[in-house]
Specification:
Layout lengths: L1 H12 L2 E6 L1 H15 L13 E2 L2 E2 L7 H7 L8 E5 L4
Antiparallel strand pairs: 1-4, 2-3
């Protein structure tokens, strides 16, 4: 929640209209997560709700602590921003 609120505050402080995740940043994240998930028990051949059509669909591959460390700092390079239109 802090990450999202910090990103929203960044928009407000700079009078930006919107933000979006850069496609290449999302693709890089997904590749990394899928590579990490491929090393987990969820691909061991058992049936579970983490798999769909042979792909692990969990959105995080690590510990809660690792996720908290990742979310500690805004990664502004992963986003594109749109300034407010002047009237």
């Amino acid at each position: 929640m802090d990450y999202a609120m910090n990103l929203i505050q960044f928009l407000l402080d700079r009078s930006l209209a919107w933000f979006d995740v850069r496609a290449e940043a999302q693709a890089d994240y997904n590749r990394r997560i899928q590579a990490e998930l491929a090393q987990t028990v969820w691909v061991a051949g058992c049936r579970n709700w983490y798999r769909r059509d042979g792909k692990v669909i969990n959105n995080w591959s690590g510990s809660t602590g690792a996720f908290r460390r990742l979310m500690r700092r805004l990664d502004l390079d992963s986003y594109r921003f749109q300034p407010m239109k002047s009237h």
